[in-house]
Amino acid sequence: MAASVHDVLLIGAGMAGLAAANSLASSGLRVLLLEAQHHIGGRVLTRRIGDEVIELGAEFVHGRPPELWSLIEEAGLTVREREGARLSFHHGALHSDDKKIDDTFQPLEDLKNFDGPDLSFAEYLNRKPLSPEQRGALIGYVEGFNAADHNQISTASLAAQQKAEGAVDGDRLYHVVGGYDQLAHYLAGRITDRRGSSRRGERAREIRGLAGRVTVLATTALPLRRQSSPSPSASCKASASSSRPGPTPLSPLRPSCAWAASAASHCSFASASGLTALRSRISTS
Question: At CB < 8 A and 24+ separation, what contacts does 79-88 make?
């Protein structure tokens, strides 16, 4: 692949990458967005079967954050607020009891006033007079919603999350009618309109910085051909199948290797902040 020169190169076409690329392109910078996968949107993964729209990733618009809603309105998308009763399942039956649900999750609401030294959520719960049932519900919610171990996740980060949700009516949930991925494709179109560009199926494998210039080496990922009945061993081989590029339908790749399960057991999530330095010239080759 021939080298190309850009002002800014972003790696990852999730919603954050798309929004950043759009903002930079709108300021007149030559922007290139690299995405290793063959779809954009990151956790937003919409699939359609006939007239049905299925969200396999991010599903809801949580509350009314102005940054997201202004983009939804600009894109001309329609949203619908989720309706229905809140139900809980215990003692073998479904129950509709808003007060019980509110009481169960009150320790999370209390985090809006948290200002003490940081501690794990497990330690925070240990300081509360909770029944085993209530403790289990709180742990299940935090580990399910935040995808984090309650023994590791920061109480201060959960407090910040609760405060942010309260500021934008975060307990109200909306669906994007027609699919959440419409927002990702709208952003991608705006980037192109502003003379930016994006490449899918290209994985950044090396970043080199020297004398005010950054070079990113990327490889093009070719889609796997559909395989009707792969053998267990073949699913773990890097050379399982190679093919010509194109919109060939893909089958899910389900590795059964022990190393995959072992690696997953060491994954965790955490908050992080930092600085991104933009060099004056960035090229890819």
Answer: 79/174, 79/175, 79/176, 79/177, 80/174, 80/175, 80/177, 81/172, 81/173, 81/174, 82/173, 82/174, 82/175
